[in-house]
Model the fold of this input.
Amino acid sequence: MMAQEEAILKAQAQFSEMMAFVRQAPTTGSSIDQVERGLWEQLLAVGRALLEGYVAGYDTGDLGPTLEHQGRPLRRLDDPHDRRYVSVFGELTIPRTVYGTRETQKHEVVPLDALLSLPERDTSYLLQEWDQAFCVQNSYAKSRQTVARILGLGQSVRSLEEMNVSMAGSVAAFREGQPAPPAEEEGSILVVTADGKGVPMRRDGGADRPAHGARRKKGEKANKKRMACVGSVYTIEPFARTADDVVNEVMRHRCQANRPVPQHKQVRAELTRTIDGAEVNGKDRIFSWFADQAATRNADGHKPVVCVMDGERALWKTLKRHIEKVVCVLDLFHVMERLWQAAHCFHAEGSEEAQAFVADRLRRILEGEVGYVIGGLRQMATKQGLRGSKARRLSEAIGYLDRNRRFMHYDEYLAAGYPIGSGVAEGACRHLVKDRLELTGMRWRPEGAQAMLDLRAVYLNDDWDAFHRHRIKQERRRLYPYLRTVQREWRYAA
Done:
C-alpha cells in the first residue's frame, strides 16, 4: 500500500499548490480566464495522481504462485506485465501479475484487469464515450483537435475511426435488448416512414477509378454514392383536420395549435452491404425493423399502422413484403411539388395565379377528388395545346399523381387524424446522414459509414448513456468470465 499512499500524498501536494495559486493570483493581476485555465490543468494532474493511487491500492493483482481456473492450476508468470491505460486525466502505465501456462502462450487470467474492469482497448471507457460523442457530431480530425484542446491528449484520427467501428459493434445487441416504451406514454397511432439518402463513398481502385487526368463521361459524377435507407418509427395521437385547415397551414404557413407531438421517436439508417458473406439490402433491414416495432409497440393490434412516404416504388414494394395491415399515405409535400410543377406550365413562377392554381387543386385532392384533378390537368394540356418542355413536365406531374392515387385518400386520412407528411423521415435524412456523413470532403467505406450511422442514431435517439452502460457491461462479461473467482481470491488474500 506504500505506492497508493505516495500517490495520494502527491495529489495532496498538488492540491496545496492549487490553493497557493489561487491565493497568489490576485497579487499578480491574473485575469479570471487565466486562473480558470491554470486550475483546469492542475485539476487534471490531481485527478491523474488520485487515479494512480486507486490502481496502486490493488498492487499488481498478485494472488499467489498458482491460481485455479476452469478446473486446472495456472502458474504466476515471472515478471509483471505493463499495460498502457489512457484516462481522461492522462496516460498511466499499470504493472500486472499474469497467470498462464507459459510466457509465450496466451495470458489466461490477469486478476488486476478484472478487478479494475479495464476495457479491451487502451483507452478508458469514459474517454471512449467522450471521444465518440464528439465524433458522431463532427469529423474525426476536428473531434481529435477538440479533445486534445480540452484534455491535452494526443490521439490519432485512425484510432478514433477504429474505436467508432468497434463501438458500433455493440449497437445491434443494445437495440435487441431495449424494452417497448411504457404503454401510458404512447400515442394511439403507430407511424413508420422511410426515405433514401446517398452517402459519398470512396473509390477503391480497379474499374471504379477513372484514368488519371481523364475527363468524366456525360452524367458521371466525381464521387459515387451508396444509398442509405433511413427509417423512423413513432406513435402519435390523432389530429383530425379539414382540407381548408391543411391548405391554410401549408400554403400560408399557419401552424395549427394543439398539434400532437410524436412519442418515443426512433430513427436509424441502413446501407446495402455485405454481412457474413452475403449482400443484405438496406431497405429490407429497415422495413424488417418496422415489422419488429409494430409487433412490439402494437402487440394487441389495436393501433392503426400508418406509413407515410414519397412515391418511390421500391419503398412501397418493400413495405408490403414486411407489413400486411398498414395504411399507406403518399407524402403530401411531394404531391405539392407536382402541383407546383403543373402550375408553372400555365402560369409564371411566383405569380398569384400559380399560387391560386395550387391552392385550388390541393384543396380538391384533400377532399378526395384526385381523379377529377388529374382529368382536369389533362384537359388543360389539350385545350392549351402544350408542347415541348412544358408538355413533358406536365405529363410527369400527372403521371406521378396517377401512379400514386391509391395512396392519396386524404379525405379519409384527415377524418381519422392520420399524419400525411413525411417530414420526420426527411428530417432524419438530414440530421442522421447529411449533417455528418456529407461534411466537406467526407468519403466513406461501407463498414465505417454504417458504424457512424449506427452510433449517430443511438446519439440522436437519446440512448447514448444507456448504450454505454450496456456495452460496458457486456464487454466486462466477455473479457472477465473469471471475475468472481478473482474477487473471491482477492478478498481471501487481503
